[in-house]
TrEMBL record:
<dbReference type="GO" id="GO:0006508">
    <property type="term" value="P:proteolysis"/>
</dbReference>
<keyword id="KW-0645">Protease</keyword>
<keyword id="KW-0464">Manganese</keyword>
<keyword id="KW-0031">Aminopeptidase</keyword>
<dbReference type="InterPro" id="IPR000819">
    <property type="entry name" value="Peptidase_M17_C"/>
</dbReference>
<dbReference type="Pfam" id="PF21337">
    <property type="entry name" value="Peptidase_M17_N_1"/>
</dbReference>
<dbReference type="GO" id="GO:0005737">
    <property type="term" value="C:cytoplasm"/>
</dbReference>
<dbReference type="Pfam" id="PF00883">
    <property type="entry name" value="Peptidase_M17"/>
</dbReference>
<protein>
    <submittedName>
        <fullName>Leucyl aminopeptidase</fullName>
    </submittedName>
</protein>
<dbReference type="GO" id="GO:0070006">
    <property type="term" value="F:metalloaminopeptidase activity"/>
</dbReference>
<keyword id="KW-0378">Hydrolase</keyword>
<comment type="similarity">
    <text>Belongs to the peptidase M17 family.</text>
</comment>
<feature type="domain" description="Cytosol aminopeptidase">
    <location>
        <begin position="308"/>
        <end position="315"/>
    </location>
</feature>
<dbReference type="InterPro" id="IPR048816">
    <property type="entry name" value="Peptidase_M17_N_1"/>
</dbReference>
<dbReference type="InterPro" id="IPR011356">
    <property type="entry name" value="Leucine_aapep/pepB"/>
</dbReference>
<dbReference type="InterPro" id="IPR043472">
    <property type="entry name" value="Macro_dom-like"/>
</dbReference>
<dbReference type="GO" id="GO:0030145">
    <property type="term" value="F:manganese ion binding"/>
</dbReference>
Length: 461
């Protein structure tokens, strides 16, 4: 689906955005009949409050949207998005009351309110149309919305229709839209090209495991995005219980996130060289599944003892990270729905990340509020390194004890990035458990907008 601003302001109705407590001041400048209508309605300016103001003939002439107060806005990612569905069947232009520094964020939230996943039944969201507020880069906001749509659609699609082959086709579609180049290594070719852990994790599935490699741009800093593409995760021979398997169509959320980010980078024509690596597999159960206590060889030459086949995401990411690291790019970013420990630490709403240097972390943290995309730094805590060293092999994919699971997973991944000084890993959830303004229940993008907003500073674009 395409989310866009209204193409013309002609015929649009004025929408006045009013904070809670500011209604009386606004009414003091309005005609008596307007003031009487608003007071009779009980409109107070709370978040989600709306009111259509009629003219003499009874038809709508203007509207009000509540903006709450500072404390209430701190609890809502996109404030005006709460009003958009209640102002449907009209086109609106912001006439007053929306702070300029909030306009781009609120305009994006309004657009995202129109998202509905309609592949299997019509879930088109009913919402008012919006003219792009003055002073914002409307094209950029529409690009951000399109990137989010791609990410949500990929995550929401069940594994029967979004296995490794279908995920590859989605990359081809994106590449064709932006004149990017794609190469794919699949099946036995993974062993021939020294990508053994990707092969081991995915070899039991009907769809061949594969590494999808998309490149775009020929000038500027070199950025590599690596996204976990586990299209469904049964847990392998360490089979997940049914309750834990229920959302595993979203285990390719890291791949969906980096593809949304890549779409935005290419559409904005950022002056950089982009590479996207997606190890796409399904972690299935069959006679040739990899087993607990197996020792896997990696592209990096490190050996990995398998103590839980359900800790497979770090295995496929490791081979892809090792490949990325061989060219020593300016920055490597990995994104993955990797650990339950990250959810325990920060919940589903925040994208925790790890960074190899403080300046990189500060850039993400500074960009997050304006991008309406909260992130939180967790540490690469070196004293925990022994936890991922089992003795029989170089690394352990599932350290015993259960402590610091997100950190030990990130430390595991860092072992495969040795030639690239700047590396960050985002351990995202990729799912909105309950609907919120601008964020439908289901697949969701996390981290990508903060990364995009931080890239100009990080890469000196």
């Amino acid at each position: 689906m395409t989310l866009r601003f209204a193409t013309a302001a002609e015929g649009a109705l004025d929408l006045h955005v009013l904070e809670q407590g500011a209604v009386d001041a606004w009414l003091s400048d309005q005609p008596d009949h307007v003031a009487a209508w608003v007071r009779a309605s009980g409109f107070e300016g709370g978040i989600g409050d709306t009111l259509v103001i009629p003219g003499p003939d009874g038809g709508p002439t203007a509207g009000l949207a509540g903006y709450g107060n500072a404390a209430a806005r701190a609890r809502v990612r996109f404030t005006l998005a709460a009003a958009a569905p209640r102002l449907q069947d009209q086109t609106w232009r912001i006439a007053s009351g929306l702070p300029g520094q909030d306009a781009e964020r609120e305009a994006l939230g309004w657009l995202l309110t129109g998202y509905g996943f309609s592949r299997y039944r019509d879930q088109t969201a009913k919402t008012g149309a919006l003219v792009a507020p003055e002073g914002i880069d409307a094209d950029r906001v529409e690009i951000l919305a399109a990137a989010e749509v791609l990410t949500r659609d990929l995550i929401n699609t069940p594994a029967a229709d979004m296995g490794p082959e279908a995920l590859e086709e989605a990359v081809w579609d994106l590449a064709r839209d932006h004149d990017a180049h794609v190469e794919v290594i699949a099946g036995q070719g993974l062993l021939d090209h020294n990508l053994p852990m990707i092969h081991a994790v995915g070899r039991a599935a009907k769809d061949d495991p594969r590494l999808i490699d998309m490149t775009w741009g020929d000038t500027g800093p070199h950025l590599v995005l690596v996204g976990k593409g586990v299209c469904f995760d049964t847990g392998g021979l360490n089979l997940k219980p049914g309750a834990s398997m229920g959302l595993m169509k979203k285990d390719m959320g890291g791949a969906a996130a980096v593809l949304g980010l890549a779409k935005a980078i290419m559409a904005l024509e950022l002056k950089l060289r982009l590479r996207v690596l997606i190890p796409a597999v399904e972690n299935s159960v069959a006679g040739n599944s990899f087993r607990p206590q197996d020792i896997l060889h990696s592209r990096k030459g490190l050996t990995v003892e398998i103590n839980n086949t359900d800790a497979e995401g770090r295995l496929v990411l490791a081979d892809a990270l090792a490949l990325a690291d061989e060219t020593a790019p300016d920055l490597i970013l990995s994104m993955a729905t990797l650990t339950g420990a990250a959810r325990v630490a920060v919940g589903p709403d925040i994208a925790p990340f790890f960074a190899t240097d403080d300046a990189l972390a500060r850039a993400f943290e500074a960009a997050a509020p304006g991008a309406a995309d909260p992130v939180w730094r967790l540490p690469f805590h070196d004293p925990y390194e022994p936890l991922i060293e089992p003795g029989i092999a170089d690394l352990d994919n599932a350290p015993k004890g259960g402590f610091a699971g997100a950190i030990t997973a990130a430390l595991f991944l860092r072992r495969f990035v040795t030639e690239t000084p700047r590396y960050a890993h985002f351990d995202i959830y990729g799912w909105q458990p309950q609907a919120a303004p601008g964020r439908t229940k289901g697949g969701i993008g996390q981290g990508a907008r903060s990364i995009l907003a931080a890239l100009p500073e990080i890469l000196d674009l």
